[in-house]
Amino acid sequence: MAIKSILTSQTDFTGEFPVSEKTVALWRFNEATPDSNNMLADDSGHNRNFFVSGWSGTSANLSSGRLGRYFRQNIINPTSEKTHLVATNDGSFFSDLGEKIVVGGWINPTTYSVGQTYIPIFNTRQGPGQPIFYVSLFQGRLRLMLYNSSGSLIYDQTETPTIPLKNNGWYFIASIIEVNSKRVQNLLCDRSDGAVWQSPVRTFTGDLNQSCVADIVMGMHANTYYYAGGFDDWFYEKDSSLTMEDLIFYFKSSILANGGDSTADVDALVDPGSVILKATSGVYAQSGQFYSIAAACGLSGTGRVSVTSEYIAGITSISLVETSTSDDLSSWTEWQAIGTSGELQSPNREYIRYRITLSTQDTSRTPKLLEIQLHDIPKPPYERLGFARPVVLDTNGAWEAVLENAFDIVVTSEVNGADILEFKLPFHDSKRETLDNEKQVQIVNDVYRIRTITDEKSSDGRVVTQVYAEAAFYDLSFSAEKEPMEFVAETPEVPMRYALLNTGWSLGNVTVNTKRTWQSTEKNALAILRTIQNIHGGDLIFDSANRLVHLLTFGGTDSGALFCYRKNMKSIQRVVDTRSLITRLYAYGKDGITFASINGNKEYVEDYNYSSEVRVGTLDASSISNPYQLLEFANMRLAQYAKPRISYVLSAMDLSVLTGYEHEAWKLGDIVTVDDRDLNLSVKTRVVRRQYNLQEPWKTVLELSTTLRELGDSSAVWDKAADILSSADVLDRQEVKDLVPFNHLRNSRADDGLTYWLSSGFTVDPNNGVSGSASFKAEGVLGMTKSLSQTVYPASRKSYTFSAQIASENLQKGPNGKVGIEVVIEYEDGSTETRFIDLY
């Protein structure tokens, strides 16, 4: 990760013109009054201060403006007030000019200054000695005059800009004079609308007066001509490196900055190098929005914003950081809040600016903004899953280590369900030290958080670290507790925004437009989002890279990928399951309401397209209070329940990782074609689950069309959102468990024999399974214990669910016999607790 840009100085916060090593003098006019000698400070550090001639008894003052204070003169009557500024030349102003000199600054002219013929601005014609340049207005237009050492005029050009000067307007003007190449160009910019005009590049003959010892006089010439209006941030550079592009960039990039603005509720002048809330009579504003100058963006990868501040927890804060980006400093994107970890949500453009809200609960205190950094996080080292390796991220989300030696890397993900990462790493790998619980790991564009780390030594002496990580969106289950909320005939965007409020995640695209009236009683963001998907339908998509949540009618595409035997499919299993078939579905909503009054006095809907047999189920939709929506919801669910559950399980290779087969790419949720002549099978179906082996893509396992029921639910709260079918409990409850699978048991269907299990007296029955073809089996012997055990390392959860389906035949228990599940819980302090769940 590289730092793309840093904003930390006063000029970054105020938009004032910055000092460089080439600056001869710069006058900001930020004082409240001149000093006792009527002097105004030179902020370049060279002590070339301005003497104010005509301060007392005139309209001259230092007024509050956009860039702090500015000097205002001759407002009543220029010819009688005669106020002007003089910087005495110590003999070094114009020696050693170098290649280029640049003069410029802000003017705020009155009607007098834009209407008179001769108005001096930046003048060296007052002597002593001969002049070198004279910047003025001629009938309201920019005029530049240059002189040689004998005092002869060698350049005199009055420009006609496309920007007319107006009374009380603020304009940035500058002249670039190339000493040796003898070229000149002028600039005029209008703060009111951001307009920029630059003159043609012009040339002059002769040599500039580099022996000039004249003073610099602002706003007066020959004790006859005077300027009326304001000056701010005037500068003079010699041997300058400034270009016309630099000056235009300064103007456009600074135009919004408000750290010095007298009308803002923030202040970047009282404590230079920081932004605080503005104080009036010792009382700070309760909140204020600070706008920065524009800075470089143009990221090679993704961006992350970090803000350094001083605050008092619970009292003062930087409560909101927003960004806007642009390619031309004129057209800007909408303001967008950064993610909870500083992720840049605005589009990647050439430039970026910041809007930051400072807040306080105690108006005698203020937060202090010190620095804003934009980090450039390069694109992921891997662009697709095949052959990718885990990348460990640091606390800023930047790459810390690429785990080249990781193996057994498997990503398991489901449509509307699980998304987990598991891999192994040699314990003695030098990058093992980068792994730690709760650190983030990146796989291509997906981000996972490490939940468990297991170091295991095998019988052959090899030590391996095993890592289990959950997708970043799982953190939404730890969000601040949500209050119950009633939604009346709302599309899903409204409850989704409520769920994501103050989580750092934002609402993405929503194409589902069903309206539902219901009450949310879930306590965390993830639970609410799952309920929304269950009630409204569609596919819930989590974009962890950009921290966005989408709800799409269909979260995939017809990929065109083909799976067939001897090409990219090693094996296939088709399961047609009618055990949970329902043809008549009763539905009950909030407070027991039904839709009978709008459904011919029937409290049920029917579908006999597959079977003419009446098979009854009951749908608990207690969160829905509208009978019309309840009827629509029941029909939506019956469309799923009234036909067999058909599942395909493939062991297949991802051919898209091979050159020439890129067109065979597919992703989770896509439609693919499966073709097998031996099974007389040619069908288009959907990838609803994948177990992707990154190291060996040919070992990838796909489940198509319908998820086979293996994964369990770790939180009973999801049952509230379930469609509880009283006569088909396995179907509906398990469906919801499939939606939120946090199962930590491996090989729970005996698909891989006794792998991962420690068996004492158990065998595998390969022909009699429930959700798959196999199951575990034990034949009891009186006075003998037979067991099957597995140690798991679950992440922190409020509750856990243990589920199993068992069958028994001629079971007889002895005097002390037990049949059930024994759970031994080990806590962080090393203590253990044993619980027994009796199953017979």
From TrEMBL:
Transmembrane domains' residue ranges: none
- Which Pfam families does this one have? Prophage_tail, Prophage_tailD1
Q: Which InterPro entries match?
A: ConA-like_dom_sf, Phage_tail_spike_N, Prophage_tail_N, Tail_dom
- Per UniProt, residues of the Prophage endopeptidase tail N-terminal domain are 390-471
Q: Which residues are in the Tail spike domain?
A: 473-716
Domain of life, per lineage: Bacteria
NCBIfam families linked to this entry: put_anti_recept (TIGR01665)
Protein name, entry field: Phage minor structural protein
What high-level taxonomic lineage is stated for the organism?
Bacteria, Bacillati, Bacillota, Bacilli, Lactobacillales
